[in-house]
Amino acid sequence: MPQAEENVVRQVRLERAEVAAVVALFDDRLADTRAQLAVTLATRADGAREAYERQSAAERLAREVRRLEGAEGGLVFGRIDLADGTALRIGRLGLQRDEEELPALVDWRADAARAFYEATPVHPMGLRRRRHLRLAQRAVVGVSDELLDGSEPTAEDVVGDGPLSAALQERRTGRMGTAVATLQTEQDAIVRSPHRGVTVVQGGPGTGKTVVALHRAAYVLYAFPKAAEQGVLVLGPNARFLDYISQVLPSLGENDVVLATCAELAVGAATAGPEAVEGPRAARLKGDAAMAGALAAVVRARQAPDGGLEVRVGQEDVRLDAAEVSRVRDAARGGGLAHHRARRLFKELLVDVVTAALARGAAETLERIDAEVASLTGIDLDRVAAADLRRLGHDPGPADEGPGFDVDAMRAELLDDDHVERAVERLWPHLTPGAVVDALLGDPGALAAHLPEFTAEERALLLRAPGAPWTDADLPLLDEAAALLDGPPRRSFGHVVVDEAQEFTALQWRMVLRRCPGRSMTLVGDFAQAGPATTARGWQEALAPHLGARFDLRTLTVSYRTTEEILAATRELLARIAPDQPPVGSIRHGERPRTLGASPAALADVLRAELRAQAAAHPGELIGVVCPDASAAALTAVLTAAGVAQWARLVPASEARGLEFDTAVVVDPDGITTARPGGERDLYVALTRATKRLCTVVVRED
Ligand SMILES: Nc1ncnc2c1ncn2[C@@H]1O[C@H](COP(=O)(O)OP(=O)(O)OP(=O)(O)O)[C@@H](O)[C@H]1O
Which residues contact 575 (CB under 8 A, 6 or more apart)? Predict the structure, then answer.
């Protein structure tokens, strides 16, 4: 065996032994935690308090077991050798032996691991060598070193192909994997940023925005305990995308992150009806910030609209004039409370006014009786009553205070009174989010009154039949209405990560921000990939209404997915859809993209042949067939008939954002472009999904 190979074998063997010891420690930790969990579950609890404590301990231990299990695959992936000879192993979580000072394994998020990601030959950060370990199951099968201090390689060093290129050569599985072992310096700087406010990450397709977003979520959980305690939320554009990224955080040992689409968060309606489809123009209008103002106006219009109040109390009718009711309404609104809380205040204030009116009325009546008695008999009833009280040993109080009227008792009675409650309900009704949205979208008059900035045609697009199923674009409206009625949602998060953030409308941003009162967020996206509901063309425009200039903007510049050849083929399109955006470069090279032509009648045959050829040439690789949404149903049958359903996924163009395949077959690019407004951006998304090869099937008449 040549010397170099022998060195590699020796280093792999050495690492295998060392890593085996770390894995054994991990196994002990896992076995120990499982045993503790079993004991806790088997312990009988005496009384409610003990039961509660046992329950919390069991939950904590079960979480820890899940965390450990999640991190087991690829547990150890790196090692750094400091100039002084110290070696540290880097892994998905930290492990420490009791008797030792140095950790057996350093969590990748710990400060001690920073140099693993950030050291370069120019800034070696005290490192001599960075080593990547490749594991198969739990055993080391490969090592790869970079020397950072300018020294020559020795027999102990295995300098070769970088681990990044190995990671990038791996076949796509349809689920995103973690890039924890190969995070690049510009990505790591964002992941590890100490900035606790809003970080925005932009970058072209495949630059690792999702990678950064998810590793950032894991870092926040590790480094910002307060945010971690309040929970971390990751928002993605659709269920397909959430499924694609669902394994990344568990594989980093993080199971407590909530993954959701924005629609799933909405309060006020369970879900959008499956049959409810929305035209893109209506969806865009429904996302406009003006809708929030219009909904607020609808709610205000239901709060004591001008007019007086008449309410029967006992035998009496109490009347308040319009000015008095408006004063009470304005006072109730003054605190900026949500509708239902302000309603309670309105009722209390109204009852105060009614009580005062009753007290005044009672005083006047008594005065009148006194005067009548005095004029008929010459007896001053007040003086007689005061003398009686004094004789009984009571202080009658100042003579002009009038007769006893128990204000508090009257108030309490009125607050409980059915007539009063009915009067309040008329003036300031309980409302549901659905009723509020319906009051706007179901009423052309309300649309005209509250949305004067929209044209008549736009308002007509918004009109909905009462009781019609809710659409996805209605959900942020319902959530907005719910917040107007009852205040911010109860569940909020310490940190929110938003992927494909360019998709968010103003109303969706409002939804997100209501759930993140601390304004600690990581937002990643690319405006060249924006869908039809997005009106903003840049971060400043999208975020300024909600955050002002308070965000830290970072840019990723290198694509790790899309090959240079594919990017070159999309440059013209990019220049048209985002002229200000500098094109990214790629570290990958691959085949030149191909274009096939097919008549509509021959499309199925051409596609079937292409899929069969691809599957045969590249067995086991994943093919993404991206097509106009309207063709998806018909093309499913073609995939099945081609016998490649196992390797090929059919994706409607509107759902392709964020996904990735070895090969992308983009069917009917013109159909994708014309299917909906901004279709060229949908096409750009479709064309940039492949890691290796792209084939476009153009449909044209013979
Ligand atoms: N540092 C890295 N090491 C290994 N793989 C990486 C790294 N960074 C990115 N990748 C890979 O590159 C591909 C693209 O990454 P990602 O999906 O995060 O890009 P993106 O910017 O979100 O793309 P898009 O704009 O299309 O949504 C993924 O396969 C990802 O695993």
Answer: none
